[in-house]
Design brief:
The chain is α+β, with helices and mostly antiparallel strands. It has a single domain, classed as Arc Repressor Mutant, subunit A. Helix content is 56%, strand content 15%. It is built from 4 helices and 3 strands; from the N terminus they run αβααββα. A 3-stranded antiparallel sheet has the order 1-3-2. Helix 1 packs across helix 4.
Length: 110
């Protein structure tokens, strides 16, 4: 699970990674930086959570990886979304919307 300023629900990290990779292929450090940037510094994913998630997503066939050269001229593994990953992202987004709506309903109840 990701370490954040507030802990994420289990499975949320997978959703965030899939969404991030839907924007563009990137290496692990880039994924963590993009998530932090898009969340306005609320979410901070540590490497100990990120890399096991990337391995799991790759084993499920939702992402694929290939070696490339990073901006600082180092070899890095670049991850990209597969067709199955795009389908899974859509399902995960729908599930998240359903869950967040249900939680909001509970919180609004007096």
């Amino acid at each position: 699970m990701a370490k954040t300023k507030s802990d994420l629900l289990q499975g949320t990290l997978d959703l965030l990674i899939l969404k991030t990779l839907a924007l563009a292929p990137m290496h692990g450090w880039g994924i963590t930086q993009r998530i932090q940037q898009m969340s306005q510094d609320v979410l901070q994913v540590n490497q100990g959570s990120l890399y096991p998630a990337l391995v799991r997503l790759e084993q499920q066939g939702w992402i694929e990886a290939e070696w490339g050269t990073s901006d600082n001229n180092r070899q890095a593994k670049y991850y990209s979304l597969t067709r199955a990953g795009r389908k899974q992202l859509k399902e995960e987004q729908e599930n998240w919307k359903r869950l967040s709506t249900a939680i909001e309903l509970v919180l609004q109840t007096n």
